[in-house]
Amino acid sequence: MRELYKIHAEMCKVFSNSTRLEILNLLRNKELSVTELIGKTKLSQVNISQHLSIMKSKNIVTSDRKGKNVYYKLTTPKIIKAFDIIREVLAERLRNNGKTIEEL
Amino acid sequence: MRELYKIHAEMCKVFSNSTRLEILNLLRNKELSVTELIGKTKLSQVNISQHLSIMKSKNIVTSDRKGKNVYYKLTTPKIIKAFDIIREVLAERLRNNGKTIEEL
DNA sequence: TTTATATATAAGAATATTCTAATATGTTAT
DNA sequence: ATAACATATTAGAATATTCTTATATATAAA
After folding, report:
1. Can you give the residue ranges of every domain in chain B?
2. Considering only the top CATH level, what class is A2-75?
């Protein structure tokens, strides 16, 4: 049973990096190619590929090559459900401090 | 706006350790003292205090001293909502592999 | 005020994560 | 076949995390 906490923690490690969260948020509605992700984030190609590789190895995203491009998408919308709950908590806290998400 | 992803990631770091997840799961319904947590987990006092300290610094739990004991509880039930969504994803995956959570 | 019980903090070795730079591989067009 | 474009992998320095050991602090009981 303690093994389950380890697997759970391994999965949450994916969410513990801001670059990966940014990528996941971009993938919330539609699949995107690496090139598109580069364009939207201004991050380096290498870095994005590395993070996508990490997320793929944890089964958070899947990839699909279409010609020269490789498209990535979420394996389940529940990932974004969890993402959004944490955002709600953060938004509440900011609000309590007189700030809004938009200000950041 | 990229700042928000960093705060979000900081919060998720709390969930990226199996011991902390175990503690959070024990705190899901009721507040517990450090001694009670030691009894339920068989982890060392120092280790539990350290993890509680980390979670307190990230505002995931709050503490309340009552006599000799210090009781900890979750700051918001949304923490457990997010926890449970990830568990659902893991349970689905195990099921697809012909296993159940109970087996672990 | 000393003792016992409960909890917290500090220091440091072992381990893990992240980014950058260099390079490799895969696909299409010429 | 080779050039151009898209993506993946490797290696390593810098940094962060985790656990253990030792010790400190806080409260209550004797």
Report:
1. 2-75
2. mainly alpha
- For residues A89 and B10, give the distance between their C-alpha atoms in angstroms, rounded to a whole number: 13
Q: Which residues sit opposite A64 in a β-bridge?
A: A71
pLDDT at B45 over 80: yes
Chain A residue whose CA is closest to B13? A16
A12:B2 CB<8 A: no
| Strand C bases contacted by the protein (CB, 7 Å) | 5-10, 17-23, 26-28
Q: Is the pTM of this model over 0.70?
A: yes
Tokens of B44: 């060392």
Q: pLDDT by residue (tens digit) across A55-64?
A: 999 999 999 9
Cβ-contact B7, A103 below 8 angstroms: no
Question: With an 8 Å Cβ cutoff, are B5 and A15 in contact?
Answer: no
B11/A5 Cβ within 8 A: no
Work out the number of other CB atoms within 10 angstroms of the CB of residue B4: 20
Query: How far is B35 from chain A, CA to nearest CA, in Å?
Result: 20
Q: Does residue A47 register a pLDDT over 90? A: yes
